[in-house]
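Quick review question:
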């Protein structure tokens, strides 16, 4: 069984020993934003949804609860659950997409050292990471921090409820900014410098390691057999990579969902000294990964479809298809490069490689020759240029010899977008047989922990097959190489105007409110 505690809901699935998915279900829960930039959830609602999901998937006629040999956990990274001595939740969980901690990020760089934090944690501070959240609670809610006995990541709270055990895994812990990523254990230096007691944190394990068993009480409530082993699991991206078979040095996983991810498996820790890409422990014992994240990938296309895709939505309804398919069909009529129209996909700021919350989307080179089909294609190309930024850093600066790229998410469903990826990345694009996301990878990790597979690599070799491949078109790659140079030049030219624009928006609001 694999369990993925996502931001909008928990997904639970069951596979057989060959990796075939035999049952799956999803239970949703709400997101709370009590103030601008805040993002929180109630861990009790995670647990209620988890119980309902386990009950639902075990009720599937294809599943025999007595044959569940192991459970793997994955989910949203970076969140923080504060517990008292009775294991009761002290405040709502602060999530990965919460941005209240800018001051704490600057404080970490000052106290630990800008270069030193990257040397130890292999990453610079980000608002979404866990360590700044802990400092924020220390400073703004000292009464909560004084009562805190344990701080858990989201999926690890579910582990506690299932097994009564405190534990986490190396991949998820890498996103706290408290782990020495090279040593795969908590950093004593960071913890002492930030005055965070080590006993507040759970023990850290490799992802396939068994960390506890289903309790009698949980068995009675859910139907899962008591004593079922629960493995450490992984953060969502590491689990998703396992589910796509990205486990060997140089393997690449490209996921285009709302956000975009380039994930490269490595046999050794390779850290970007400038902090442009993340370096985390992989879910494969003794391995790491480098990862670039862009904030608006599929989300940029969704924005376009929602804003300007009204006519295509009507056509899609008439044809019984999806607006996405109608729009991408139109884009196939346009040549690579969209006749000089370049889209910067920074609709919500950007994370890799620019770390700029002020950056915004841009259409560059727009002319009267351009029609909607050009704009659609330029969005697909612009997102892929953004992902190439991450791939370029990993290849050129970290020295990783990457090969084929395994695609997931919406970008793996469109033939046109897969061809654009192949051409811009100059790499063969492979589509795995299963696209069930991180839940699938966590199920494979459970199989390793339960002894069904001898290793993570053995699990993926048995369960993951390739069902489609797309080769790069050399001519198209030459075209895209020229346009990518222009794309790279645009952000540096616009960095200051981006910041000035945000200031102008805030100033205009003040002026209008005052005059009104």
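Suggested answer, residue by residue:
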């Amino acid at each position: 069984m694999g369990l993925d505690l996502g931001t909008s809901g928990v997904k639970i699935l069951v596979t057989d020993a060959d990796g075939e998915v035999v049952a799956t279900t999803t239970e949703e829960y709400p997101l709370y934003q009590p103030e601008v930039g805040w993002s929180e959830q109630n861990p009790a609602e995670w647990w209620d949804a988890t119980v309902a999901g386990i009950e639902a998937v075990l009720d599937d006629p294809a599943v025999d609860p007595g044959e569940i040999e192991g459970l793997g956990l994955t989910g949203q990274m970076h969140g923080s659950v504060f517990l008292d001595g009775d294991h009761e939740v002290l405040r709502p969980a602060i999530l990965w997409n919460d941005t209240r901690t800018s001051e704490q990020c600057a404080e970490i760089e000052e106290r630990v050292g800008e270069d030193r934090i990257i040397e130890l944690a292999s990453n610079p501070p980000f608002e979404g990471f866990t360590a700044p959240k802990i400092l924020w609670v220390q400073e703004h809610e000292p009464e909560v921090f004084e009562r805190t006995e344990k701080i858990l990541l989201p999926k690890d709270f579910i582990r506690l409820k299932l097994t009564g055990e405190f534990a986490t895994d190396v991949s998820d812990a890498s996103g706290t900014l408290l782990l020495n990523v090279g040593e795969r254990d908590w950093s004593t230096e960071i913890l002492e410098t930030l005055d965070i007691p080590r006993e507040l944190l759970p023990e850290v394990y490799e992802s396939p390691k068994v960390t506890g068993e289903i309790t009698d009480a949980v068995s009675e409530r859910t139907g899962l057999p008591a004593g079922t082993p629960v493995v450490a699991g992984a953060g969502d991206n590491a689990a998703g990579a396992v589910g796509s078979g990205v486990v060997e040095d140089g393997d690449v996983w490209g996921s285009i969902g709302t956000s975009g991810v380039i994930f490269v498996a490595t046999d050794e820790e390779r850290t970007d000294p400038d902090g442009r890409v993340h370096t985390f422990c992989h879910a494969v014992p003794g391995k790491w990964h480098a990862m670039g994240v862009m904030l608006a990938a599929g989300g940029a296309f969704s924005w376009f479809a929602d804003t300007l895709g009204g006519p295509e939505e009507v056509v899609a309804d008439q044809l019984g298809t999806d607006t996405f398919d109608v729009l991408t069909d139109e884009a196939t009529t346009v040549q690579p490069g969209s006749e000089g129209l370049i889209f910067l996909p920074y609709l919500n700021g950007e994370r890799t490689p620019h770390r700029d919350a002020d950056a915004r989307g841009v259409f560059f080179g727009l002319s009267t020759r351009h029609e909607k089909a050009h704009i659609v294609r330029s969005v697909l190309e612009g997102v892929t240029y953004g992902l190439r930024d991450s791939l370029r850093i990993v290849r050129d600066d970290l020295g990783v010899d990457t090969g084929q790229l395994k695609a997931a998410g919406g970008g793996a469903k469109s033939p046109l977008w897969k061809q654009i990826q192949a051409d811009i990345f100059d790499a063969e694009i492979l589509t795995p047989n299963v696209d069930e996301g991180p839940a699938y990878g966590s199920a494979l990790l459970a199989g390793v922990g339960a002894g069904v597979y001898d290793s993570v690599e053995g699990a993926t070799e048995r369960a993951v097959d390739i069902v489609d491949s797309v080769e790069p078109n050399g001519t198209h790659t030459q075209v895209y190489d020229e346009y990518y140079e222009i794309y790279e030049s645009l952000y540096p030219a616009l960095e200051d105007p981006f910041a000035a624009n945000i200031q102008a928006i805030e100033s205009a609001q003040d002026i209008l409110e005052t005059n009104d």
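Why it works: The chain has a mean pLDDT of 95. The longest strand covers residues 21-28.
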